[in-house]
Amino acid sequence: MLHADYLIVGAGLAGSALAFLLQKSGANVLLTELKDAERKDKLCAGIMLLSGIHHFQRIYGRESLEQLNLFPLHILTRLFFGEEYSRPLEISTVERKKLDDFCLKQYLDLQGRLADRLRLIRIGAKGRIAEFRDMRENRTVQVSYGALIGADGALSAVRRLMTGRRQHTVTALQGTVDFLRSDFVTASHPLDIGYCWYVPRREDATVGCGFSALTVPESMKRLRAFCEGLRLDMPPLRGAPLPAGDDVLLQCGPDILLIGDAAGLCDAITGGGIHYALESALAVADQLLKGIPYGESMAASLEELSRSAHMAPNYNFMLSLKMAHDISSGAKENARQEEDMLIWVDRADRETGSGPKLRTHEIGQLHRAFSVFILDPQQKRILLQKRAAGKYHSGGLWSNACCSHPRVGETTEEAVLKRLAVELGFTPDAEEKRSLTRCGSFIYHADFGPLSEHEVDHVYTCFTDPDTFRMDAFSPEEIEALRWMDVSDMERHLAEHPEEFSAWFAPAWKLARAALSPAGE
Predict the structure, then answer these.
(1) pLDDT tens digits along 216-225
(2) Between β-strands 238-243 and 169-178, what pairing exists: parallel, antiparallel or unpaired?
(3) Which residues, other chains included, contact 316 with Cβ-Cβ below 8 Å and sequence gap of 6+?
């Protein structure tokens, strides 16, 4: 078993900065990361406010700022209802991966310990022990700790394991375009609670959007219109969940803290994400190194940081977001509770009752589920999805095109069609609907930390044309990436690297494969 006085989950900007501060003091630190630390690239426009620059200099020294090669901006242009105005705003931009790589290197240069490709699956209820899944060697790793800090983003596994819920998020979309102009442009849409942006960097620029009240396809329509207004072609987009800024939680246990996006710290309109990542790292390091006890005294000492997050320069934006959430929270909660009621069944798939999604997986209750495989009409290529890293299990693994559970009062085929739209933005036409075929079912049981999947899984296949299938309409909250792959190449890779696929993929594909012709011959 490994040990660390301070176990930090998430090697992004917030986690690396805190790890550096603690390691510099002589503490025993272990920094873990879900993804490949060298290749990780966070979706971010790279805006650094003066406050963020000040925090960076406090942590790494004034001379270190020169290594970032910041691009200074002095004019902010905002478009409200078609009217344009400008005002001075002292900000700079930086390539986010360059910033994150710099901060991680500073920690490693102090002989800091880093373990990447580790998935957090359990936090001990009685002892200070965290359990990870080593995704390279497919084995379990346990770490004992004195304090655990979650710095693992908006869909934080630390937050979810401790509270049983996720924070509220906004899906942001972003792409890279040619350098067009040297000012920062945003177009706000108050009724949709969100905005689009153009942010120049030294050699290129980013465009993107974030809307709390729109689906991904609807958000893309707003962004496309914004690009057309700036005479820019719509670029290929990446998506990621960002904190909505209305659910700040700095402490979720007596010895467990959250920082950065994991804490819900957000300053969306003015681009204060870097500012809050660094400020929260500084605040937590200050409290930990002063030896202030955990519990209420810690929470009280960090209260100001939480309060400042709600009083950020974009306070009106976050207030509007919170009001919209509060006004509809009753109806949304009722709908969510009804939507999340899963169908309990016996081994013959006969209904025996129902229960909430989280409770169903906590007790390992057998329930109804489905898995969908999308193939081209010649059955030579298969659509694979890489599950989003923040999924409550199997995040970052390759799997079939879509899988989920029918809810109470819903047929399995109705659930399949609904989920294809939610996850993939795919609404089958008449011919594609006719191709949707149930191939059979199997019983699947696997444990994922404190949760257990125990399902009667109904397997479906659906045919579509890969050349017309939209690869940019998927939900970033559900999916990290999509790819078409030759069936033969997929089967070879599955045989050689089964740890890179979800646990249910192989048995589900075996059932689908047998039902296909001529592929199943």
Answers:
(1) 888 899 999 9
(2) antiparallel
(3) none
